[in-house]
Amino acid sequence: MGKNSNGFKGFDKELKKLQKKVEDASKPESVSFDVLFHEGFMKKNTRFTSINDFFDQSPFKVETEEEFEALDQTELDKYVAEHTQFEDWDDMLSTAGQEHIAKKLGF
Question: Least enclosed by CB within 10 Å: which of 42, 48, 56, 72?
């Protein structure tokens, strides 16, 4: 019984750690594009090495959040579909977000 009890204590400890990570990951936070679209993500899913490279080589002028917000969504979606493995910007953003959360959770 002693071995099982220690095993359950270890499991309980790990479960509590995971619960804390989930709680922390559930808190709203601002994540920069550089963090969300890190080099590994960009190399794996696009022909670019960074999100800055992605936009620098695009037909769009994006140097501020306001300029990004003003982009024509249809044109951005077309550019994403042509230069990445994603169907559109929302698909790219969603995948990056899921990977960011998984990383924060330790997966």
Answer: 72
Tens digit of each residue's pLDDT (9 = 90 or more) over 5-21: 566 666 666 656 656 65
Q: How far apart are CA 60 and CA 52, in angstroms?
A: 12
Find out whether 76 and 89 touch, Cβ atoms under 8 Å: yes
Give bridge partners of residue 84 from the DSSP assignment: 46
The one-letter amino acid code at 65 reads: E
**Token digits of residue 82:** 């042509």
Structure tokens at 99: 């990977």
Q: Could you tell me the two tokens for 87?
A: 């169907």
